[in-house]
Structure prediction request, 821 residues.
Amino acid sequence: MTDLSVTEAQARAALVEVVSYDLILDLTATPMRSRAEVRFRCRQPGTETFADLTVAATHSAVLNSEPVGPQVAGRLRLTGLRADNMLTVEADVADDVFTRFTDPADGAAYLFVTTFPEGAAGFMPCFDQPDLGATVTITLRARAGWQCFSSGAVADRTADGEWRFAPVQGLEPYLLVLCAGPFATRASTESARVPISVATRQSLTDVTGLDQFAATAARAVMHYEDLLGVPCPDPKYDIVFVPGLTALAVSVPGLMLVNETLLARMTDPDDDFAAMVCAHEVAHLWFGSHVSMRWWDDLWLDEAMATYLSNAEYWTAFGYRSKASAYWADGLPSTEPVSAPVVSSAQALSRPPAITYTKGAAVIRQLGALIGDDAMNAGLTDYLTRFGGSTTMLDDLVGCWSRAAGRDLAGWAQEWLRTSGTSVLRPEISVAGDLIESVAVVQEEASRTHLIGLGLYDLDTDGRLRQRRVLRAEISGARTVVPALAGERTPDVIVLNDGDLGYARVRFDPASRLVLTAAAMDVGEPLTEAVCWNSFWDMVTSGEFAAAEFAGLVGRRLRSGSSGLPLAAVEVLLERATAAADVWAHPALRAGLRERLAGAAHEAAAAAAAAAAAAPAAPAAPGSPLWRALAYGFAGCAESAAQLAVLRDWIDPAAAVDADLRARALRTLAARGLASGQEIDALASLDPVAGEVNRATCLAVRPSAAAKADAWAAALSDATSWRLAQAHASGIWVPGQESVLGGLDYFGAALPALAGRDARTQRRLAHLLFPATLVSEATIGVAEEWLAKTDGPAALRAAVEDQATAMYAVLAARRLAGGSI
Ligand SMILES: [Zn+2]
Prediction:
């Protein structure tokens, strides 16, 4: 890997203008062979620069007819530059540059490469930095029967397997994605101005939802064209499902790769998760492709914008699935501002995704509330028109919004995008008789300007909460009085950040907190209910609300009518309540909490199945999306013998449950030593997509020292693929298995083993392998000692600091008295 510093990048961009890359890659050769011609101009002839190059072996490297090289530490030195230069390199590509997959079903071979953030040098010489794009022309030699995909449209295809793609202008090396194999086209649509196709590997013949996925992409293209006032910049859009992608999906000009694990979320037309992922990727055709960041400081310009645009229809799901993770990440030592200096390309992805994506999107939504949707959208149109085909920095986008809003937003950007942390908002209410005397919003920990909703709720005669009204107020400084509420009849509940326009950790006054607890958050407004749950969860992890009581609230909410809850709420609340029982409550309460929570989930699932069966034209119960979400949650917290017996029924190969649910049930059984090796091994053949991953996790959760040692070794082995390493690691630390976990040496063995790996692997595995279930002052002490005496890689230090901080929080939460369900 080459590691480019920001100063080197700036100097190179000042010196060099890249004209074109012409790449020929022979995918059939072993090793893979590449030939690249790079044309570039130099603004100071006679000087020198370097290209990035990390190929396995160079056959020839020629600059303007003179041999150059060899590559040293990932760089090819280029001296004696002319005004116009041509660099030609023929090379062997290292084996691990492309991700390869052999389909166990039919032996077919597939391969792909994504170069984000700095992988293109693995197969061609390049000036690999976000602000140096060029016209890229690609030719691939492929096996007979293969389909090849790249950003360009297919210009020509010969009978002997040569694929020539049309040139793509202004493409940066980190956006190069290539994909080949005997793919089959499963769906296509011409309903947008841009033709869209969807392909999967050949053996996946019975997957459903692909037509809908293509239609969703087409709708998203048309929606963004309309909203942004800028036509889709690409002439075609190919969508390819591939196994083993590290991200859930990746979008570059004209091409989207999707992780096959998403297929499991596409079987149900009512499940909008895949549609949300699709809309995010389509948004990258404008934000990230058409206009992109100048340097890694501003990755949010691509990712927060895509997240913001794609969630327009899904803010409730965003509230449940994402926001709590951003509040949590923003309180950890590793947090950073949404936009913050990145010193070198190796650190490009070191920033927490919950900040770049989720906080970034939430902050833009907050800006939309502040300046209005019209100004928001006018600013985006101005930005895309002004900077289309080039790269930008924070001030460019904020400048467009400022002009559109007629308001200088530099101060806003400083507070929200250049400062880390989350404000805590707390209401201060004084009452005279049954009237409000005054309401003030107190801002703790940081002072920012927010425009938020204040919701007033009353208990109806039927004991349910009803929204009386919402008023919007601009909050700034340590204390803001809201005069509009003086003299109003006192409501039963006041919710700050009603409608979830803001990015803030909110608290309640004591009376509202009591009523909300009694009503198990059922306020009748889905977005605001998400705000309430996020607040109570934040109080659990801050040691202000008993975890056991939180688990009980979720159980009551499910029993009182889960039919009114969005799917995302059911999924997330069951997941959090299970974590409350497993991790945040005192261990002595764990079994009882789990059993009662599973009881509530099971009861609600039975009600959902009955409702689905009774509904006209409903799918056969069980099988409704709600039933599935409840069943999945139940499988995660089942505890009693009777509950575990239900899971045994589900893992029967003849049971009518999907592969995901079967794997979740098996995982709970395996963690209790109730699953045979044969049953776990069978996962791989039952599910061609996620089977191997689920098998690895189920093997790791088994309660024996030998199983833990095997999983530990597999997770740390260089030979294990990235996704399997994560799967092994994520099954090791199971709460309650402390007696078999003593032999694993995180600080002495795992961290040194990870030191030589790339930053992303370091970050993820250092998190997953941390002894998170050995909750004690002693574990924290060892972590602090390691931090004090080790000068390890930044990603490892950040993971250890974060995990130690999390363990402090767990200790504090466990000290609170437990409630009851
Ligand atoms: Zn993205």
Remarks:
- The radius of gyration is 27 Å.
- The longest helix spans residues 590-614.
- Residues 280, 284, 303, 306 surround zinc ion (CB under 6 Å).
- The CA atoms of residues 500 and 662 lie 35 Å apart.
